[in-house]
Amino acid sequence: MTPGLINANPVVHAKKERVARSDDLHADDAVDALDVFDSVRDIRDPEHPYSLEQLSVLSEDSITVDEKLGRILITFTPTVQHCSMATVIGLCLRLKLMCCFPPHFKVDINVSPGSHANEESVNKQLNDKERVAAALENPNLRQLVEECLLSNEL
Amino acid sequence: MGHVSSDIIAVRWYGGNTPLKPSFCFCYAPFHRRENPHRFPTRSSPSTPMANPSSWISHVEAFVDDSALPNQKLASVDAIAALVKKDLLTLETLVREMELYLTTPDHIIRSRGTILLAEVLTRIMGKSLNASTIGSLVEFFTSRLADWQALCGALIGCLALLRRKDIVGMVKGGDAKRLAKSFLKNVQVQSLAVDDRKRCFEVLQCLLDTFPENMVTLGDDLVYGICDAIDEEKDPRCLLLTFHLVETLVQLFPDPHGFVADFANDLFEILGRYFPVYFTHQRSDDLGITRDELSGALMRAFCSTPYFEPLAVPLLLEKLSSSLPLAKLDSLRYLNDCISCYGAVRMMKYAETVWSALKDTIFSFSTRDLSLPSTVESVREMEPLGAQIAKAALNCLRTALSELNYPNAKPFLSLIVEDEDIEKAFNFVSGEGCYPVPSKESQSQLYALGSILSTSSKVSSDCCDRIFQKFFTPLMDMLGVSPSSTVDAFNAKSYSFLKAVSFGAIYICVELLSACRDLTLSTEVLPQQVILLHDEWFCLFKRFATPLTYSLGSMVATPDSSILVNEDHRHEVVGYAVKGLQVLTTFPECYSPISQDAYKDTLAILVNIITDIPGDSYVWRLSLNALIQIGLFIDKFNDSQKAICYREFVVQRILLWVSLDDSSVRFAQKLESVYEIGMTGREYMLAVTQWLEQAIFAKILEACVNCNFSSAEILLSMLKCYSHQVLPWFHKANSFDEVAMPFAINVWKLMGDNNAFNVNFKDQVVLDTIMMTMKLVVSGCTEENQVLIVQKGYTILLSTRSLFSEEKLAAYTALNSEGSESAPDSVCLACKDEWLISLFSSVLIALRPRTPIPDVKLILKLLMFFSLKGHVPATQALASMINKWPESRNETEESNVCSFEEAIELIFEMDLSSLIYSCPFRKLRDLTSNEEINLLFLKNDDKPFLIHALEGLTWIGKGLLMRGHEKVKEIVMLFMKCLLSNQDEIIKARQDGSADQYSFLARSAADAFHILLCDSDECLNKRFHATIKPLYKQRFFSSIIMVLLSSIKESDSKRTRAVLFRAFGHVISNTPLAAVVMHANKVLPPLLDALSVLTSDAMDKDLIYSLLMLLSGILMDDSGKEAVMNNIHLIIGHLTRLISYPHMMIVRETAIQCLVAMSGLPHARIYPMRPQVLRAVSNALDDRKRTVRLEAVKCHQAWSSIASRSLHF
Would I find NADP among this entry's keywords (chain B) (predicted)? Predict the structure, then answer.
């Protein structure tokens, strides 16, 4: 591990208020971007005691959902270009979505274009089933990821 | 007492290392007294023997012992005190036995000994002691004050002695003085710990409070000593005491050349440091002291003497200019009190400084909230600090105005009136014409000016005079009002504004008006406040008042675009114009500035807004509120002339407007305005009610005779208003009967009028609402009036040909004589009869238990008759009658009165063979074999009389159950019989439709349990005076549950089991949870079975939901744990199935929540089920509803984290 923090002084943004969803008793509630955002906004950053939302790593707009095709696409922005935590954040997102959404959704997780030095390799790593599975079998990594998910308010 | 000195023990005291002079002589008078009981009858007589020293000396040892626990020590003090209280031990003996402890050179032991003695004294404060004992004790403790190592006990002892009341023997003045001297000489307060300091201050306070004369003689020693003691104190508990101490001290020396006057500097130097109080303790602090308490105590100390004036006022003024809001607020409050305490002579020299400080504060802190019309008085803590400051500043201003009127000096008011800033502000806010969008700054300036002027004019008539002279005429000029502008000008609408209206001018004007009004109103509460009608301001005001009224009126009535700039401006101007009108019309009668005509015109203007522009909701609401306020004012001041005006010009005109069929206004809005206007006074409400009643009857006719659907809608809203608003209002006003009784009678009159009321249209909703209204009306009436209502209804009923023809009458009376052959289907209810029966039933439902009913037997039969035809209200009326039937009637037997037993007999034995082939009630009870049942259905294949009979029995059963009557058992057994008969056979036997009917019967019998136990809104509840036996549900539950469970176990037919489960479900879901949980072990397995049986039918979703709620109740209850643990597999299995229940979302949601609750059970038990649960919950992640999905995520998390580090499974 690198000594010291990768981004020692992140910019912290205010949390947005949670939108109360209207209850329509008869219609079906389709999965939408806000659903996905609500489930991942409180994931803690691996380095700081702030949520991904507060660090502006994620926003509702960076998530697209296609219910018909069953796809969720999340694009996140690491706080610094050379952030080695980007993969950990991606792993957290993937694990969280695995718990919160039915398995028939195909989840794609990318860093936003130009936001990371090794954009391509990070994207590849995050969407490779085998590598994700392998990463989750690493006890240290697993613990780190679960700690990040624990702070969830949900 | 010559012999007293013969028995003296001289005790040698040690203080620290140096032995003190023998200073304490204890007199043992009691020994002699005991020898002479006749001379001293008050002391303990020989019959109460002294306690043996060996019995209590152990307590002393325990207390002094180092190793004893605190509560042991406490117990030993209590024990000794108890002995002393009971005269089993004298104080003298105690002291003598403790001698060693009190005198030993070991200071730890000595200190404990002293504390013990002091604590005992504290506990016997209510016991009377003789003077010499007290004297000796005081002397002892006084000397002990010099012993710094044992000081704690000495202080406690001094306190206990000083606090004694005169009747139980108190310390003498001379002794107290000696004590005080010793204290001042020996005790270094500030070097002590906090508890001891606190005691020191208490001792001083006690001395000052109880022995003021003796303390005064101590002179400057005392003042100096106290200064020394309180200097540098920091603990809040002690500070509270010290502030009070200073307050008491300075009041002892009121003399201008006294010691306090000399020490004022020193004292204030100590006090002044604490201002403004800086206190950071949290609210939850165990000290129980708030900042407000401290600040208040300090304030009282500040105000205690005028000698503080040269020191305090400059300090306060300095802190007032600080930027710290709390300091500002405190300064203002202190200043306010100081002005009134120090007096005008001393304060006059600060007048200018005070004014300029106040002016600055008010101008920088005034906000809208302060002056907005009719804001609710909010709690102080909730108010923003800025508003609090502004309020305190205005308070202070008020005090200054009323106090600082020194005859030979310029009054404080002159400062305000002659102030240039005020003048400038006045010209600025009102003179510059109109500013369409006023800047924030000028707005707050406006509010500040308004509040200053209105506060000043409210103080007294004189103040008002000067303010008016200076500001009122210019204001009127600005608004273009002159005394000569005539009414005609207004009427001709030629009254026009030269320029756009200045909002500022209107605002200030209205503020001044309301200040005047408050001033006149204050004469009611403050008799010394005299306002003469020839006071200058009043004459001036009166000259302008009427033209001003018309001017304001025209602003409200004709929102001419030329005078208004934009929407905001319009709202502001019109809002304040309406408020101005309201103020002008709410002066007390003798001070009313406007003429009667102008008053009427004002009302008319406001009413016109209500009637003409209901679309403009802002102005509409404002005028309505103004009218309501005017009405309330009239009501409060009992102004009869104005009341007549109000009635004529407001109430009647509004009623007229409401009656018009004007589709542009929502009817609900109209109704609301009428009701709110009515609320202002009883008389008006009566008028409104009368109108409402007539309107309701007219609409009933329209809706039901002419089949007008839109009238039906209006009728419903009127009925709602009547029953939910008007009736409760009269109930509160204690005149319910006055309104309700005529209403009920009129309903009957309407029904009785054959020509007018000819219903040919049936709208169940309308009928239900009318019935409900009728029930509410009747239930609130007194018994006497209820009798009249029932009588009237009964007469109407009797006179109805279709119901009471010869033939029908025969049918009713023949109900219990067999053989009459009138066919059942010939009885068919016409619409009107239906109304009559329904309304009559509603009346019966709502009666009080003691209200007699005419012709009971006939009515019973009539109700039976309709009940069997499936008329539910009749059934409910029957049940209500049975429920409330008095146990025994002592009155003289009348022919139409029957006892409860007779009535029951009548119902159960009634043979309805005249109507159907077989008597439903009796035969239902007797039916034994399936053939008989078959036979029943064979005869009545298209009319489910049996079902109606069953329903009737259910309601009657409910009535009986609620009053706790035995007969209900029979009915329940009958239901059981219906449930248990073997359905499969019947279905096999009968291939046609009657089998369906049979299963319908069984199902109805099951549903009967729901009716038996549920709480109904319609009847048999508290509101309708039902007899309710406590815990009747619990009793029923415990009696029926075993029967049901064993039947379920024994039955082998699938259908039978299904209906049994249904009945079982109704029973347990309607019984209070606590009763069910007690039987959790027995109930849980069948509950789960019921869940699985009932899931097949979507119709049962409500039952499923209530069962699930019951299950979750058992899961959450501690006493249900054991049963849950025993059935863990079953429960989880059923819950996982319910996760996919398609018919109701909350069932799925609740099932998942139950699973979350179960994840808290011991891991070893639930771990095997983990994969099963997780699989089911994963499916729920894909649920159609979002709430279910979210619950599923929580549940997934809860279960996946069980006994595993991994989220996978």
Answer: no
Query: Does B565 map to a domain?
Result: no
Looking at the structure of chain B, the number of domains it has is 5
**B1132 and B1142 belong to one structural domain:** no
pLDDT confidence bin for B495, thresholds 50/70/90: very low
Confidence at residue B1110, expressed as pLDDT on a 0 to 100 scale: 94
A144 part of a folded domain: yes
Q: How far is B1108 from chain A (nearest CA, A)?
A: 20
The answer to the question of residue B939 being in a domain is yes
Contacts of B1206 in chain A (CB under 8 A): 142
Q: What's the CATH code of the domain at A120?
A: 3.30.300.130
C-alpha B110/C-alpha B149 separation (Å) is 9
Please say if the pLDDT value at position B859 is more than 50: yes
Token pair 């702070």 is found at A151
Domain assignment of residue B564, yes or no? no
The band of B282, judged by pLDDT with boundaries at 50, 70 and 90, is: low
Residue B1092 sits in the same domain as residue B1209 = no
Contact A103 B1178 (CB under 8 A): yes
CA angle (B227, B228, B232) in 5-degree steps: 95
pLDDT of residue B225: 87
Q: Look at residue B284 in the predicted model and tell me its pLDDT.
A: 54
Does residue B424 belong to the interface with chain A, where contact is any CB pair within 8 Å? no
Indicate whether B29 pLDDT > 60: no
Last residue of a domain, one of B781, B799, B817: B799
Q: Which residues of B touch A154 (CB under 8 A)?
A: 1190, 1193-1194
Residue B122 CA to residue B137 CA, distance in Å, equals 13
> Which of B1145, B1189, B1194 is the best substitution to test chain A (most A C-beta atoms within 10 A)?
B1189
In a domain, A48, yes or no: yes
Q: Which residues in chain B are contacts of A95 at CB distance < 8 A? A: 1207
- Please indicate, yes or no, if residue B921 is contained in any of the structural domains: yes
Among the residue ranges B163-172, B613-622, B669-678, B689-698, the one predicted with the least confidence is B613-622
Instruction: Mark B190-225 as b/e (b = at least 16 C-beta within 10 Å).
Output: eebeeebbbbbbbbbbbbbebbeebbeebeeebbbb
Q: What is the largest CA-CA distance in chain B?
A: 123
Residues 6+ away with beta carbon under 8 Å from B827? B808, B811, B865, B869, B915
> Comparing B218 with B1110, which gets the higher pLDDT?
B1110
Amino acid A12: pLDDT: 81
- The whole domain housing B296 covers 205-300
For chain B, the average pLDDT equals 78
Q: Domain check: are B904 and B980 in the same one?
A: yes
Q: Which residues of A touch B (CB under 8 A)?
A: 21, 23, 25, 28-29, 31, 35, 39, 95, 98-104, 136, 142, 146, 154
Over range B1055-1068, report the average pLDDT.
90
For the segment B294-308, the average pLDDT, to the nearest whole number, is 86
CA–CA distance, B969 with B422 (Å, rounded to integer): 87
DSSP B1126-1144: HTHHHHHHHHHHHTT-SS-
Counted domains in chain A: 1
Contact at CB, A99 and B1193, closer than 8 angstroms: yes
Q: How far apart are CA B942 and CA B945, in angstroms?
A: 9
Same domain assignment for residues B140 and B254: no
Q: Are B882 and B1030 in a shared domain?
A: yes
CA-to-CA distance for B159 and B662, rounded, in angstroms? 82
Question: Which residues of chain A neighbour B1186 with C-beta distances below 8 Å?
Answer: 21, 29, 35
Residue B430 pLDDT class (50, 70, 90 cuts):
low
Alpha helices in B380-419 (DSSP H): 385-403, 412-417
The reply to whether residue B1193 touches residue A102, judged by beta carbons under 8 angstroms, is no
Write out residues 1169-1198 of B within 8 Å (CB-CB) of A.
Answer: 1178-1179, 1181-1182, 1184-1187, 1189-1190, 1193-1194, 1196-1197
